[in-house]
Amino acid sequence: MTEQGTDRVKRGMAEMQKGGVIMDVVNAEQARIAEAAGATAVMALERVPSDIRRDGGVARMADPRITEEVMKAVSIPVMAKARIGHIVEARILEAMGVDYIDESEVLTPADEEFHLLKNQYTVPFVCGCRNLGEAARRIGEGASMLRTKGEPGTGNIVEAVRHLRQVNAEIRKVVAMSEDELMTEARNLGASYEFLKEVKSLGRLPVVNFAAGGIATPADAALMMELGADGVFVGSGIFKSDNPERFARAIVEATTHYQDYKLIAELSKDLGIAMKGIEISTIAAGERMQERGW
Amino acid sequence: MKRVGVLALQGAVREHIKSVQACGAEAIAVKWPKDLENLDGLILPGGESTTMRRLIDRYGLMEPLREFAQTGKPMFGTCAGLILLAETVVGSDDAHLGVMDVTVERNSFGRQVDSFEAPLEIRGIAGPFEAVFIRAPHIVSVGAGTEVLCVHNGKIVMAKDGQFLGCSFHPELTDDHRITNYFLSMIQDKSDLLLPNPSTYSKV
User: Fold this and answer.
1) In a domain, A234, yes or no
2) How far is B198 from chain A (nearest CA, A)?
3) How much is the average pLDDT of B158-183?
4) Does residue A103 lie within any of the structural domains?
5) What integer pLDDT is reported at residue B189 of this predicted model?
6) What is the pLDDT, as a whole number, of residue B191?
7) Percent of chain B beyond pLDDT 70?
8) How many other C-beta atoms are found inside a 10 Å radius of the C-beta of residue A151?
């Protein structure tokens, strides 16, 4: 009678993260700082996105020793990244008991045509999306949580804003449509008709949608919440800042109290220097991580 | 109308608010001490207990929450909320609110891959209840005055200690509002206050 790995159990885990901040960490010490600051989960990886971008080469799943070290260090959930379409990396992470897998465009894709069939796994998955069609396809494959792709490792929020606005605008459009318009919209978006019917009746996505990719300050985190994100992922923004402990705490508090602007002003005072950002137009189209996946 | 607060620092706040409203009561999101005024009961939702604790401390909510507990108004904790209520948390010297006479152990069913759903028989709530357990805690032991409401595979997963109700699982993730209704029934209707309390009455 007891059932594991059901949609309710996998999606429910993401529901429990709502209003929270999930932080990228590369070792046990950073994981403990994140937990103490109030992170709802940590993402264990070998290099944060800004270092991946700087170093170039192929970015893969982290050394299992790092993931294991992080899992031992904290009691909050631990997520880890697998390459798009890399069935074995995903199975390894599942076997290790990782709590959530990010099938992530931050790593170099292993498959340029097919994403993982995520509903075959007991462990839940989070995936990136830039629009409602991409969201529909990832959920169709079994993703239990979504996030914007943004442009990881840039400290520039503009792409995450674009993607969240795009998804939410498309949801509003679907909700306002009459039923007889849905099939054509399904074709146009590359989404299934059944999915659009569900979105129309719920008035939102059937899974939690976080913001990710370029969040560098407490105000950035609050902005994404204001735009309707259910929570935020912060990658390079914390441990590439001057004072990770203070940045981490301030981002957690700004996410909870995202409409309390006086408080966010206080939180943002004397935080030190945020990570150095990158203007998106200076990144060659072929090097934009958001273009990975379909 | 009964006014029920839902601690809204992080976690499954929206679901509890929806459930309270579906049961015909008013739901209030509680982020600051002043939001606790004029409530008849309070729900502590599922989420991450370490995150909620940090935000409780940072914004001076601990004392107001404990004072709220002292008023005798009902409080209901689900999963992380149960951990916040418990008098003792295994492996930690520091309880959170520490008001409910139970000892809980965090993540005691394993990691997320071990999370599950199962039908439960709950005392006082008829029929099987589809319960969703996510990295759930369980109640290791209860005090003398605490009533065990449900045991699953030998582990206590729901209990009631006076005005405190706590469960390991997430009723807010289902559309079954029987547990929320049960909690609302623990809140004394204001109109009842005009009448003699039936429990004292029967002892006369």
Assistant:
1) yes
2) 40
3) 97
4) yes
5) 65
6) 52
7) 92
8) 26
Give the position of tokens 């309707």. A228
Question: Tell me, what DSSP letter sits at residue A118?
Answer: G
Q: Do A146 and A139 contact (CB within 8 A), yes or no?
A: yes
Asked if the Cβ–Cβ distance from A13 to B134 is below 8 Å, we say: yes
Q: Which of the two residues, A278 and B44, has the higher pLDDT score?
A: B44
* Chain A closest-CA separation from residue B170 CA (Å): 9
Is residue A180 in a domain? yes
CB A153 within 8 A of CB A236: yes
Total structural domains within chain A: 1
Cβ(B73)–Cβ(B38) under 8 Å? no
Element (H, E) at B41: strand B41-44
- Tokens 């599922």, residue located: B46
Q: Which domain holds residue A147?
A: 7-273
Q: Which regions of chain A are under pLDDT 70?
A: none
Question: B55, A5: Cβ pair inside 8 Å?
Answer: no
Task: Give the pLDDT confidence of A233-272 residue by residue, as tens digits.
Answer: 998 889 988 899 999 999 999 999 999 999 999 999 999 8
Residues of A in contact with B110 (CB under 8 A): 97
**Token representation of residue A244:** 């990770």
| Beta pairing, strands A21-25 & A208-210 | unpaired
In which band, very low, low, confident or very high, does the pLDDT at B199 lie, cut at 50, 70 and 90?
low
Residue A169 sits in a domain whose CATH number is 3.20.20.70
How confident is the model over B129-144, as pLDDT tens digits? Answer: 999 999 999 999 999 9
Is A165 annotated in a binding site? The answer is yes
Handedness of CA B29, B33, B36, B41 (dihedral sign): positive
pTM of the entire structure? 0.94
- Name every residue whose Cβ is closer than 8 Å to that of residue A230 and which is 6 or more positions away in sequence: A17, A18, A19, A208, A209, A210
Distance CA(A103)–CA(A109), nearest Å, equals 9
Residue in B11, B55, B135 nearest the CB of A77: B135
Query: Does the residue A285 lie in any domain?
Result: no
